[in-house]
Amino acid sequence: MRIATFNVNGVNGRLPLLLEWLEETAPDVACLQELKAPDEKFPVRAIEKAGYGVIWHGQPRWNGVAILARGCEPVETRRGLPGDPADTQSRYLEAAISGVLVGCLYLPNGNPQPGPKFDYKLAWMERLHAHAESLIGLDCPVVLAGDYNVIPTDADVYKPERWADDALMQPESRDAFFRLLSQGWTDAVRALHPDETIYTFWDYWRNAWARNAGLRIDHLLLNPDAAPRLRAAGVDRDTRAKQGASDHGPTWIEIEV
181, exposed or middle or buried, with CB in 10 Å at 0-12, 13-18, 19+? Predict the structure, then answer.
């Protein structure tokens, strides 16, 4: 099973590129983030015509997540991250697909920091910790896929000094990410490519794509049932190279099911 995560940076504005990627790579599951569309504006008919069942959790202008399943309907198990009933941001969606539980997340950016946005990021990560702990021991493969907005180490960024003040690589953000891994989750891309330079995001500014000045912030975490099933992982860089592309490249894994 190929499971991909893709921050589309506007699902309607980049719909032709999304459909092209789905046709070219045929992921069995695709987790989308940053839909930037309310529920009623999600392009459900186009997605279904491409051969995918889909659930989505939209929001006007910002945020929004969706889970696509090729040739079947994802069975929704959760909408929204638990722990804060007052949180109205559309950042978490979860579904069962062919025996695999998939959580699709769009973790808050947190900039500028310090400030309320960074506080919200860290609070959201604490809620993610609590929910992830309830999933990790399930007797089935669990994959938490999405845009984590965390640069785990200096090896995951082109020039660490340029991001030193950014919320994505603050010590608190990194510590929260590694405390999540310490529950027993496996960072799938790093597990298979421990020493390679791998990026999933290239800014639109300063000719970042052409210079390969990127970041690795899109991650797929595997519970102990899923980790031994991991067979491959990578990034669809060609998608990022296309005219009008998202600033993220689709990141994917393949697991035995």
Answer: middle
Q: Which of 147, 156, 218, 236 is catalytic?
A: 147
Catalytic-residue membership of 199: no
248 noted as active-site residue: yes
Question: Does the annotation list 149 as a binding residue?
Answer: yes
Task: Compute the distance between CA of residue 115 and CA of residue 233 in angstroms, rounded to an integer.
Answer: 35
Question: Do residues 157 and 169 touch, judged by C-beta distance below 8 A?
Answer: yes
Instruction: Provide CB contacts within 8 A for 24, sequence distance 6+.
Output: none
Residue 7 assigned to a binding site:
yes
Is residue 219 marked as binding? no
92: annotated active-site residue: no
Structure tokens at 126: 């604490």
pLDDT digit string (tens) for the chain, length 257 residues: 999 999 999 999 999 999 999 999 999 999 999 999 999 999 999 999 999 999 999 999 999 999 999 999 999 999 999 999 999 999 999 999 999 999 999 999 999 999 999 999 999 999 999 999 999 999 999 999 999 999 999 999 999 999 999 999 999 999 999 999 999 999 999 999 999 999 999 999 999 999 999 999 999 999 999 999 999 999 999 999 999 999 999 999 999 99
In the chain, what are the domains? 2-255 (3.60.10.10)
**Catalytic one among 106, 131, 156, 199?**
106
**What's this model's pTM, rounded to 2 decimal places?**
0.98
